[in-house]
User: Fold this.
Amino acid sequence: MPFYSTLPNLPRVIPDPDVEALGSHIRSRTIAAENPYKPINLALRRDLPELLDFETTSCDPVIPRDELIRIRNNVRDQYQSLDIEFRNIGSGKNAKPFMASYNQVWSAAEGGSYCHYQNDADVVQEILNLLDNSNRLYEKAGNLFERNFDNSLQAMRDGMQRFERLVGQTDYDVRLIVNGYKRFLETIFQFSLYWGMDPQLDNLIREYDRLTDRSKTLYDQGTKVIQANFERSFTRVRNAFESLKSAHNHWNHVDGFIGFNRFEENYPNLVNEGVDFGRYSVFTTPPNSQSIQAVGSFFRDVNGWIDGFPEFVLFNSSRGIKRGGGLPEHKFFAESRLLDVLRLVGDDFARQSSNDKSHYEYRNLFITSLSYPHNGKMPPHAEHRKGLDCDLWTRRIDQTEASFDEQRTKDLIVSILKKKGVTRVIYTHEEIVNSANAAVPDNAVAVRLSGHEDHLHLDVV
Ligand SMILES: [Zn+2]
Assistant:
């Protein structure tokens, strides 16, 4: 039999990591004091102050030169700090120090308009230049943040591509999805930036949000696909098992030959489905654990049935005993100890029948029923299940035939009763049965049972 005797592998299971927990694991490694993932507030660039000229207008109050110089000096100091903050940006993505400094420049400028004397225009112009320069730095800082952000974002884009490929390919192993997601999360970076600094930067921040959202969606998709595949695989295993169960039932209760063949035919399917099922790696949810346990018990049942299929030996005709004509070979299997007894009985019968030399059906016993090769129900018999039962016919023992011979029948039964291992002979003829039992008082018994007028049944242990 080409049967497996071991269980196929069962799926591996891993604990189900919460998606949020995965994310926060990464976050806790990179997070700063504030949530770095959300850009903060709007940071609009300021417009240069309006200049109000003196003498020709009635602006009031006019700012004295000393006061303008004091403002200019403050603005200049703050501008120098801003310039340092700008150069500190480097490859960073934290705009807070720069923006704080930028606001300092503008608060040093003290308001939106300067009413001044014409002679002080140089000082005013210097203030305006400093403010203008601070706006230029603001623009350059925006570009710099955009470039830095884009560089970091590239790793996320690449990570997303890898993750998408993985999700598209994965069929069996949920660990690949979990690890792919973890690898993507490692590309997520921290930043503190402002909406409105730079339109391109705003777009990049939106892309960042889309990528992180998409990664969660992909994770869910990937794990759901594997889960659905796993459930389908389980259903296929269960269906394959049900087919075998029904075949085994047929073997046991309806017809052992048909049932066994059906079993043998369907078995490879169960093995294939079982091997496929064993390839999965899924989360340890209660339903998954139940499916895995169920498949384990399917295979234990099936292996138990396989162990319960005996392998009997085919009877070959020998002197005085033949297979019944017109009957299929698969009805002539039995334990070899029964076949040994039958050969001896055939031998005896051939000797007893020396006067019937010309009559084939008189000088031979014909077996009409043994067992199926692998046992199972053999209709219409209730017995013939253990490879230890045999039905015999010949014209000399057939009470429905003119050639029936009482003495020869009794001799045959006595010869059978004397064989080692024989437990019972069943035949419907009271006198013959009684006299055979009397002839072999210490051995097996002959039993008178109706339905055995034309043949006899014997069994061995
Ligand atoms: Zn029988």
